[in-house]
Design goal:
- The chain has about 140 residues and is α+β, with helices and mostly antiparallel strands.
- It contains four helices and five strands, in the order H-E-H-E-E-E-H-H-E.
- It has one domain: Sulfate adenylyltransferase (Roll).
- Helices cover about 30% and strands about 25% of the residues.
- The chain starts with a helix and ends in a 6-residue tail after the last strand.
- Pfam families: ASCH (PF04266).
Amino acid sequence: MTSLQEIVDANPEAETFRFGDDAARCDAILALVRSGRKTATCEAARHYGPRGDAWPEVGRRDVALDWDGTPALMVETVAVETRRWSEMDEAFVAAQGEFRDLAHWQKVYRPYFAATGGWSDDMKIMCETFRMVEDYAGKAP
């Protein structure tokens, strides 16, 4: 098994992150990525910058971790854009793989954004499209 340190040493530009906010959610989202149903994610733009996470960059490969901190898979960013809440659309929501439709996405994300720094109809959202390039559980695409 490849260690996280070996992966980071081989990919010094890579960020590490976890999907979700608990172990069960992390596992569920990783399963969606592995199945190919999840090829996009989003977060409030305010979480990026000098005191936050590094803004995703097209071509950069990042390591998604299991909840326990072990490497789960590597993804490569293929597109990044900034949208406002009011500009979210059905196609991007579908690429996230977790939601029935735009209304469901809004129902889930509005309280999340409100609890993590505030929500507004014109808030900026980082929208990232990615592809899985390696599965450290041995299930390569």
